[in-house]
Amino acid sequence: MSQRQGVDLSYEDGARAVELAREAVESYVRHGQREQPGSMREAFYERTGAFVRLESTRGRGSLRGCAGGYRSGEQLGHVIVDAAIEAASEDSCGSEVSPSELPNLTVSVCAVKNVLLTDDPVVDLELGIHGVAVDGGGKSGWLYPTVPVENNWSAHEYLDRTCRKAGLPPTAWQNDDVVVTLFEGQVFRERAGDGSIEQV
After folding, report:
1. Looking at CB atoms within 10 Å, which of 28, 109, 163, 171 has the fewest?
2. Helix or strand (DSSP H, E) at 182
3. Exposed, middle or buried: residue 180 (CB in 10 Å: 0-12, 13-18, 19+)?
4. What is the pLDDT of residues 154-193, one digit of tens each?
């Protein structure tokens, strides 16, 4: 097992992270441009991973895009911008976010804190604390720490669904040649309706 510390974000850091992701999505969708992080908060200079999720508030709601990584040699501010752009692009969920969708999107950011390579994910996994990434056979996939709680999944179901997302058989996480990585993350997101930001 290996573990490493990452960055601890204050509420103000997290709120700015979500604002930065929102600005990056809007700049990319409206103008096809990459937003520069500009004057970054001190925490954003840390080199760590991050994920960005875009969800539609229309109808029953749906995932519009998700991107990022738990490992990165880049500064957090730049990782957030790049993940936000990728989440809004057609590479993420098959269709690019359109300008008309922007008012009906909620943005969330997960800043990675600790990364744990595990040989026994069922024992080591804490639901609501850990995100999961699986790598095997040239395929990889990951899910946010909040996803199993939102969907009332067990640890087994969470691991199975992460494998499915990677394009692997559901129980592939049990195979010796599949690497399972757990990551802790601080998640901040816009509330649907008023756009205020909460830590989850």
Report:
1. 171
2. strand 179-190
3. buried
4. 999 999 999 999 999 999 999 999 999 999 989 999 998 7
CB 184 within 8 A of CB 112: yes
Q: Distance between CA atoms of 91 and 176, rounded to whole angstroms?
A: 30
Q: Hey, how many other C-beta atoms are within 10 angstroms of the C-beta on 82? A: 19
Give yes or no for a contact between 112 and 48, defined as CB atoms under 8 angstroms apart. yes
184: number of Cβ within 10 Å: 20
Tell me the pLDDT tens digit for each residue of 44-83. Answer: 999 999 999 999 988 666 889 999 988 878 999 999 999 9
Closest CA to 180 of 141, 153, 148: 141
Element (H, E) at 19: helix 11-31
Give 60's DSSP letter. Answer: T
Hey, which bits of 31-175 come out as E strands?
50-56, 62-69, 105-118, 130-136, 139-143
